[in-house]
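pasting for the record
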Amino acid sequence: MATTDGPRDSGYQPSPRLRERIAAWEAARQVPPKARAALEDGIAQELTDNRKLNLPTLAEHLPWSAEAIRLMMHGRGVPPRERHRKEEGDPPVYTLSDRLRDLLAGWHQTLDDEKKAREALEECIADEMRAHPSVTDAEMAEHTPWGWNQVRLIANKYRVPGKRKRANEHKLQRGANGKPLTVVVPFDWYVQQPGADQRILKEAAQKPE
């Protein structure tokens, strides 16, 4: 799991792939509101064309309640409903018009596309964090549309190994007078740092006799 340290300069720069995924998600999330507005216009037209269509019946075909549709239609100039009289026989069976069905399907498709674009972006962020173990959640967040806590959740979701700095694993060593002398850090973390001593890395790579 990723850690939640504050930002620090690891020299990380987002890859072109990450930039593309961010742009794709930003574009995808702009579409559903427009499709929703077109769908609401279609509902208003449906109610205008069929004044005997009541809201509970329409609600059976939409993902909203009759009350929600009523509030949605407020201020759109939809005429009042006509009552169905018994002498008129059984009320006609209502089915969505082709126009409204297409608008509803189009809105659902935009929601699905946005979800897929976000999942693709989250997966890319996780890949970036695996490829750059020294980058912290906060530093990665500077290059994404979210804060460090959301980045942490993404890292946890995709099981990103916790190779970045863990402050609780570092140990402070003091001298006899109590003054701080050195800080001992985990080796796995140290070797990931840009300024790691090459002599130490070479020595660590040698097999013990």
